[in-house]
Design brief:
Strand content of chain B: 5-15%
CATH topology of the largest domain in chain B: Rossmann fold
CATH architecture of the largest domain in chain B: 3-Layer(aba) Sandwich
Radius of gyration of chain B: 27 Å
Oligomer: heterodimer
Number of strands of chain B: 19
CATH topology of chain A: Glutaredoxin
CATH class of the largest domain in chain B: Alpha Beta
Helix content of chain B: 25-40%
CATH class of chain A: Alpha Beta
Strand order of the largest sheet of chain B: 12-11-15-13-14
Strand order of the largest sheet of chain A: 2-1-3-4
Structural class of chain B: alpha/beta
Number of strands of chain A: 4
Shape of chain B: globular
CATH architecture of chain A: 3-Layer(aba) Sandwich
Structural class of chain A: alpha+beta
Largest sheet of chain B: 5 strands, mixed
CATH superfamily of chain A: Glutaredoxin
Largest sheet of chain A: 4 strands, mixed
Radius of gyration of chain A: 16 Å
Helix content of chain A: 40-55%
Order of helices and strands of chain A: HEHHEEEH
Largest interface: A-B, 36 and 40 residues
Amino acid sequence: MKSFAELQAIRDRLKTEVNQRESGEGDTRIVVGMATCGIAAGARPVMTAFNREIEVRKLSGVKTVQTGCIGMCRLEPIVDVITPDGKKVTYVKVTPEKVSRIVNEHIVNGNVVDEFLMKE
Amino acid sequence: MLFRSHVLICGGTGCSSSRSKDIFAAFEEGLKTQNLDSEVKLVMTGCFGLCALGPVVIVYPEGSFYSKVAPQDVPEIISEHIVKGRIVKRLLYSETVKQDGIQSLNETNFYKKQMRVALKNCGVINPENIDEYVARDGYKAYEKAVTTMTPQQVVDEIKASGLRGRGGGGFSTGLKWQFTKDAPGDKKYVCCNADEGDPGAFMDRSVLEGDPHSVVEAMMIAGYAVGSDQGYVYVRAEYPIAVQRLQVAIDQAREYGLLGKDILGTGNAFDLEIRLGSGAFVCGEETALMTSIEGNRGEPRPRPPFPAVKGLFGKPTLLNNVETYANITQIILNGAKWFAAMGTEKSKGTKVFALGGKITNTGLVEIPMGTTLREIIEDIGGGIPNGKKFKAAQTGGPSGGCIPADLIDIKIDYDNLISIGSMMGSGGLIVMDEDTCMVDIAKFFLEFTVDESCGKCTPCRIGNKRLLEILDKITSGRGEIADLERAEELCQYIKDNSLCGLGQTAPNPVLSTMRYFRDEYLAHIEKKTCPAGVCKALLKYTILPEKCVGCTLCKRNCPVGAISGEVKNPHKIDQDKCIKCGLCMERCKFGAIVRK
C-alpha cells in the first residue's frame, strides 16, 4: 500500500517525463544537430547528456529537439539554445562535458557561455 | 534516464482495428536494432480524436503528427526522424504542414477550438500505467477531497460547478449526489453507466480506453461524498479494450492501496467491480441497468422511487455516466468556479462529441458548451466531403432529433437542443448531406428501437412497431396523407405512456424529421418520389436517349437482363425487370443514365 506522500513522489519523478508530451509554448528548446555529420561528431552522447541534466535538475519547460544539418559540419556537434523570448544562441563543438555548464549557466541562470560560441 | 523522444501510438478501438498493434511491434523491434530503446519511449495511448486519419503516431518533443501510418512506414520514421531528426513529411497530417515549416497540432482547425477536460489524458498517457496517470495529477483530487473537504463540501463543490449528467438526461449531478447522500440507509452504492448504446457514439469507450483511472478516482470521490464503499461499472462486453484497460486500472489501484479497506491509511473504504452488459440498448436506462447488475433480465421499472432512494439491491444508489465522472476530478482540483466559467448560462463545462456520418474528420471532439454547430461541422469537422451540401445533423441517437441546415448557427447546449426538438443525448453527432433521405433516417432509428425494445410495456412494444409500419408504407410508395396524422398521434401516445426513457424518446427521430422535413414526407406520399434518391421502391432508372451512344456496357453489366438495345443505338430499361441496384448508372461512361 502506498501513502499520499509516495504518490506525490511518483508525481515528482515522472512529471518532467510525461510533460515532454506536450508541445507547450514558452518552453526553452535545446536543438541538437543530428544529421550524419552531427552524429559522427558525437551528437548522441551530447543529447543524452542534456536529457540527464534536465532530469537531474527537474527542469520543467525545457525540451531537447533534434534537427538536421545546417551546413557547418566541421563545427558539429552544434547545439542551439532557444529561450522563451525567442533568442537563439548557437554553441559549437559541444561535448558531454560542456553540457552541464550550458545548462547551469545559460538555461538555469541566463548567462550565455561565451567561450563555447562560434568564434568567427 | 529522461527519454529524449516519446513515440505515442494510438491504441483506441479505431486505430487498433487498423493495425496499430503491429506498428507498436515494428517500433519496438526497430528501436532495438538501432540501440535506441533506452533513449526513446514507446507509449500505447488512448484515442487522440482524429480517428479518420488513423492509425495515428505522434512523436514528441517535435509533436509530429503522423497519420495513416502502416507498419512498413516505421523503419523510415526511425531512421529519418528518430535517428537524424528529419521529419517524414509525406506521412504528416496535411494540416500541420505549412509552407514555412510545421505547425503545432494545437493550431490545426481540428484541435484549435477544442478544450480538453474529460479527455485531458486521452492520447497523452499510457492508460495501463498508473504512474503516468499519477504524474498528471492523478489521485490528487481524491487526496484533496478526503483530507481537506467534508463529504458535504464535496457535494457542494459539484453542485456549484453546474455539472449536468453527460449521459443524455442533463440532470444536475450535484443534486443527484445530494439526494443519494441524504437518503437514509446503511449501505449505498456508486455505479457508473458505461453501457453506451447509441449508434455512432463512442465517447465513453474512449475515456475508458484512454484514461480509465479518471473514472476510478471519480467514483472513489463519489463514494466518499455519498457514503458508499462499493462501486460497480456497468460496461458493455462489446468494448473489449475498454473492459480490459479498466480491469488493469482497478487492479493497479488496488495494488497501490487506492481501492479496498482503509484507503492509503485514511480509514475510508471503497472497492470497485466491473459488470459486463450484453449489449441490450435498454440496459443503458438506469433502472434496467441496475436490474441487470443484480443478475436479472434487464428490464426497466417505474420511477419513483428514484435510484437515489431505492436503487441497486434496493439500496440508495448514485448512478452517473462515464463522461460525467471524467469531469469530477478536474472540478475538485481546479474548483467549481473554474468549471463554471466554461460554457453557457445553464450548461457548464465542455461536452465530448463523437463526430460521424458525412464529415471529413470523423472522430472524437471536446468543445465548450455554447460552441455553434457550424463551428463543429465546418471548422473542427472539416466540412462535408465531396463538395456535398450539409442537410442536417442528428444528435442524441435513437432518442434524439435532427438539427436542420438553417439552424446550423445554434449554440450547442442542453436547453437549446431541447427547444428545437432534439436533445444532447450522450454525444453522438451524425452529419448528413443532401444524399440522405430523412424519412429513411427516421426509419433507421425506429428500426433500432423496435429491435431493442424490451417488450415489457405495450406502448413501446406495439406502438413503435405500428409506427415503423407506417414509415415502411411511406417509403415503399404506399403512403397516404392521413398516415402523417396517424403517425403524429401515435408518437404522442408512445411518448406519454411508455414506461422508460427508451419508449418515451423512441418517436423523437420521427417527430423531428416530420417537423423540419415535412416536404420530404409529402414528396414520398404525394409524388411517390424520394428526393434524396435513397428509398429504392420509389426510384426509377432511365436512359437518356440523347446521351446514350449505344456502347452496350450497361446491358452487359445488368445482373437481371433488364436492359435492351442494339449496338450504337440508344438502350432502354425494362422497369418491370429492374431491381434498382444502380450498377448501370455507376458503369455508364457518358452520364446517360439518371435516377429519379
